[in-house]
Amino acid sequence: MDQQLLAKTFVELADNLVADFDLMDFLRLLTDRCVGMLDASAAGVLLADRDGKLRVMAASDEQVRVLELFQLQNDQGPCLTCFRTGAPVIIPDLTREVDRWPRFVTAAHRSGFGAVQALPMRLREETVGALNLFRAAPGPFDPAATLVAQALADVATISLLQQRTAQRSTVLNEQLQTALNSRVLIEQAKGKLAERQGVDMEQAFSALRRYARAHNRRLADVARAFIDGSEPLAGLGS
Amino acid sequence: MGAESRSARIQLLVAEQAARRGAHVDVVDVCTAAVAALPVGGAGLSAMSRVAPSHPLCSTDNVSELLEELQLTLGEGPCVDAFLHGQAVLTPDLLTRDLQDRWTVFAEAALEAGARAVFALPLQMGAISPGVLDLYAHVPVRLNAEELADALAFADLATLVLLDARIDETGGPRGGPADDLGAYRAEIDQASGMLTVQLGVGIEEAFVRLRAHAYAQGRRLADVAADVVARRLRFPPDAEPDQAGEDD
Asked: Which pTM value belongs to this model?
């Protein structure tokens, strides 16, 4: 692992946490850095809704999103196991887990992934979600990289609490609810933009994110304004 | 508590209230069931909009009816804040200085009406936010984590019931909300966003049309949404919900 990149990443994440904070942008940044730094092909942050179902909050690309959604709908896979046990699940070779998670392993293989690790997002006694890393090639994970991944999962958990809510809510499941709703907003906006400009969901997300950053706005706020048509967003075709 | 069962359990409680009335599930059943399940004295629900006038839809007693009317008339209170910020507003005790300053007129009127705790839960799915569910108690009360999760689940169900009522208006099949909350997928949200452009309508209408199509075709909402996202299915503008075109 590149020590300099590691240091740079933590500085970058810390900077984001203290500045004008945008949870959705931050979590996407975190998954992107997992890929860049930890020899992962794709990464995703999953949070439990109040039914205990894991929902994707951020992912480093759309391909893994699809996979993870598949995993959720089938109620099986390493991420779910990690969330339920509150312990890391590290699978260096997915082909050995066919009996355990037949549908998940097939889907992962089809998407080009051979190894996976899931790290719990823990807050005090409670597991609120998991950080999921996929790698194309099977083989052992570097233990140092796993430690860093767990640290990043912890940072992701802390970032949830960083979300300043207008009502100063201190209730965790209300905060999670707000975060999950932000994700819904962004998906709706991605759909609208993808259709309007004839682009795919990943390109639509990038455009929304670029716009939010250029205008120093929160991603969820830009998404809402774009869907409502309540303000013109230059360059987003509104 | 079986985590997976919360939505299903809440749905059952609401269906029981509807059965007791001998009617189809309506938002009033969500209110009645919430009062029975939570440590509150009454519940009310208002339709809210940023562009059209808001109005009370139902309430379980006189106090909650008054609370709904007060907030909409005054334009202040937990319900108004919950709608504007898209976040639950939990007020365990109205008799605190801070809150009396925040809602000067409402706090005093609510206390006089006999409400001491008020909880306002926005009905929302992203940018779809058709109203607010209000709960009140005669005594100061704090909802614990389980109770709050239940309250949020009641609000989610109310959202679907409210939107489904619009499908009924256009002749869609009746019935309680299916287990679509469980089948919730990013693709449903993406498809709703895409339909705003295809149909030239708002996000709420787009979602209603998507759901109406699924009903009419007897298909799962998630499957219809996946077809829209994969661009296998388009909704031509001004088509009836069941006449969306299949592209092959």
From this structure: 0.87
Looking at residues A163-168, what average pLDDT do you find?
A: 50
User: What are A166's two structure tokens?
Assistant: 């207008």
* Domain B5-169: CATH superfamily, name plus number: GAF domain (3.30.450.40)
Model pLDDT for residues A201-235, shown as the tens digit of each residue: 999 999 999 999 999 899 999 999 999 988 767 66
Class of the CATH-defined domain B186-246? mainly alpha
**Strand ranges (E), chain A:** 42-48, 54-59, 89-91, 115-123, 126-135
Sequence spans of domains, chain B:
5-169, 186-246
- B244 vs A123, residue with greater confidence: A123
With an 8 Å Cβ cutoff, the interface of chain A facing chain B consists of 48, 50-53, 55-56, 65, 69, 73, 165-167, 169, 171-174, 177-178, 181, 183-196, 201, 223-224, 227-228, 230
* Entry field: residues in chain B: 248
| Range B198-233 burial, b when 16+ CB lie within 10 A, else e | bbebbbbbbbbbbbbbbbbeeeebbebbbbbbeeeb
Residue A194 corresponds to which tokens in the numbers above?
């993808």
Give the amino acid at A95: T
**3-class DSSP state of A135:** strand
**Chain B (131-170) residues lying within 8 Å, Cβ to Cβ, of chain A:** 145, 148-149, 152-153
Mean pLDDT of chain A: 85
CB of B4 within 8 Å of a chain A CB? The answer is yes
Q: Do A165 and B87 touch (CB under 8 A)?
A: yes
CATH code for residues A3-162: 3.30.450.40
Which amino acid is present at A118?
A
Please write the tens of the pLDDT for every residue from B48-93. Answer: 988 778 899 999 999 999 999 999 999 999 999 999 988 899 999 9
